[in-house]
Specification:
The protein has 381 residues and is of the alpha+beta class. It has five helices and 14 strands. Among the domains are: 63 residues, RNA polymerase II/Efflux pump adaptor protein, barrel-sandwich hybrid domain (OB fold (Dihydrolipoamide Acetyltransferase, E2P)); 142 residues, Helix Hairpins. 45% of the residues lie in helices and 21% in strands. Helix 2 runs antiparallel to helix 4.
């Protein structure tokens, strides 16, 4: 018969599990998980974050073009509206051209008058030269008359002396002597008159020469292309035509119409802003990094950007262009007075200009003022 256990014999109790061993196991598992997480985080940080600086204090900007009329006139047409895309050279508005057309007509008339006066001045020179030559002929005639008067005077003087010599002998009557004296006086007067004629002809020639020189001075060394009055008239005509062209206001750049402030019928003055053109395909980003983030940032380093406008699905690529000349606080309307007794250091921010890929901007256009998340890879110097 097999041995049966003695019911009255006491059996040894089972050994209870050690709680410290279980705690150690859990702590070891937790430490392993923490170590794995730390390794994974370190790997992720090394791959995606090491050598990079980021900021969300960044905003889209662009070199906008403010459209202003260059002449004062009423508005005849407005061909665009806010948010409308326009190309470079597209017509934005048209001003009333009536006054500008009148100014062109007046300038054309002034030019024609200047050309006519120049032609008259050249003709006057020729006429004055002819008068000078004519006065020369008059001088020659006056001198001939003077020589004739001299000869007559000499003959009268000889006749008078001959009769005066014969008066004592009775061969000449008193009447003949009187006639000889009268002839002499007449010849003397004629000679003085001829001499005055020569002087008068010379004075007339001098006056004609002065007139010729004055007329010649107006046209000397000039042509219809270089005469001062004609050049000034052409410049006024060019200005009038330019003002007529400026009645058509065109877009200086391609972009989107923003802040339109002009209506049909409104009279606008020269230089008054009427709208703004924003070039959304050539936008940039100004990222305001803290000063302690910029130690390794250099121009040319690659940048990745995200916009809340498109979300994380769209990643923009860019490059660092350069740094602003000073912090925002330095150029504030009321700059901080740091040279005071009560001073607290505040980390400043410096704007960094970042260009964007034009192809991406054409595919995903941005608007001025949108916020961006910017990450600069400083590992590429």
């Amino acid at each position: 018969m097999a041995d049966q256990p003695d019911p009255f014999t006491e059996q040894a109790p089972a050994k209870a599990p050690d709680p410290n061993a279980r705690r150690k196991r859990w702590l070891g598992l937790l430490a392993a998980l923490v170590a794995i997480a730390a390794v994974l985080w370190g790997f992720w940080y090394f791959i995606s974050q090491a050598g990079r600086v980021s900021t969300e204090n960044a905003y889209v900007g662009a070199e906008t073009a403010q459209v202003t009329p260059l002449i004062a006139a009423p508005v005849a047409e407005v061909r665009v509206a806010n948010t409308q895309a326009v190309g470079k050279g597209d017509i934005l508005a048209v001003l009333d051209p009536a006054d500008a057309r009148i100014a062109v007509a007046e300038a054309e008339a002034a030019l024609a008058l200047a050309e006519q006066r120049y032609s008259q001045a050249r003709a006057t020179v020729g006429a004055a030269q002819g008068r000078v030559e004519a006065r020369g002929s008059e001088i020659a005639q006056a001198r001939a008359r003077l020589r004739d008067a001299d000869a007559t005077l000499s003959r009268a003087r000889v006749e008078l002396r001959r009769r005066e010599a014969l008066i004592g002998s009775g061969a000449v009557s008193g009447d003949e002597l009187t006639q000889a004296r009268t002839a002499y006086q007449s010849a003397l007067a004629a000679r003085e008159l001829a001499q005055a004629g020569v002087e008068s002809a010379r004075a007339t020639q001098s006056a004609a020469t002065g007139e010729m020189q004055a007329s010649a001075a107006l046209v000397r060394g000039t042509t219809t292309a270089t005469a001062p009055d004609i050049v000034a008239a052409r410049a006024r005509l060019a200005q009038a035509r330019l003002n007529l062209e400026r009645t058509v206001i065109r877009s200086p750049i391609a972009g989107v119409v923003t802040n339109k402030q002009v209506q049909v019928g409104q009279r606008i003055a020269a230089g008054t802003p009427i709208m703004t053109i924003v070039p959304i395909t050539s936008a940039y980003v100004d990222a305001n990094f803290k000063e302690d983030q910029l130690a390794k940032v250099r121009p040319g380093q690659p940048v990745t950007l995200h916009s809340d406008f498109y979300g994380d699905e769209v990643e923009f690529r860019g490059r660092v262009v350069g740094f602003a000349g000073g912090t925002g606080a330095a150029f504030a309307l009321i700059p901080a007075q740091n040279a005071t007794g009560n001073w607290i250091k505040v980390v400043q921010r410096l704007p960094v200009r970042i260009t964007l890929d034009p192809a991406q901007l054409r595919q995903h256009p941005l608007r001025v003022g949108l916020s961006m998340h910017v990450t600069v890879d400083t590992r590429e110097d």
